[in-house]
Amino acid sequence: MTRCLMVLLVALHGVLGAAQRSARTAPPEFWDQVKFVIERHLGRPYVWGGAGLKSFDCSGFVWRVMFENGILVKRTTARKFYMTLRPAPKTDPFQFGNIVFFDNLKHCGIVNSSSSFYQAQLSKGTNLSEFDEFWKPKICGFRRMPTP
User: Fold this and answer.
1) Cβ-proximal residues to 108 (8 Å cutoff; 6+ apart), any chain
2) Pick from 3, 23, 86, 132: most CB atoms within 10 A?
3) What pLDDT digit, counting tens, does each position of 60-109 carry?
């Protein structure tokens, strides 16, 4: 039993290790491609459980952007993304490509800058939103987007 548990933990560490690579180890061209993929999906309607190509929910949008950039992670909820991805540095959480989480881990988006983020929003679909007086108080954490 102990040996089986150790084998499972080693296998799990390998899977999570690949999913948690530091976002800043990727070359600038990778981040240019991430931005291109995000912008290509802007303006799509919000559909609960949607992961593209024509509609998205928040975690489906984040997953689709990662998937189309060679980051192979399981399609999951915002809460599970938060639990499996590596924390963003506290010194610069608003770095492009970090994943931002809101409202007790019920919503997520992709940081564009210290003033804006990309999201799939119920009322507007996929869009670029401001970190304004509505969104800023709802932030509950940041995680790094893994790199391929």
Assistant:
1) 58, 59, 62, 78, 81, 82, 99, 100, 101, 102, 119
2) 23
3) 999 999 999 999 999 999 999 999 999 999 999 999 999 999 999 999 99
Contact 126, 56 (CB under 8 A): yes
Reference 22, options 68, 67, 87, 83; nearest CA is 87
The residue extents of the domains of the chain are 2-143
The string of pLDDT tens digits covering residues 117-148 is 999 999 999 999 999 999 999 999 999 999 88
pLDDT class for 34, splitting at 50, 70, 90? very high
What's the maximum distance between 2 C-alpha atoms anywhere in the chain? 52
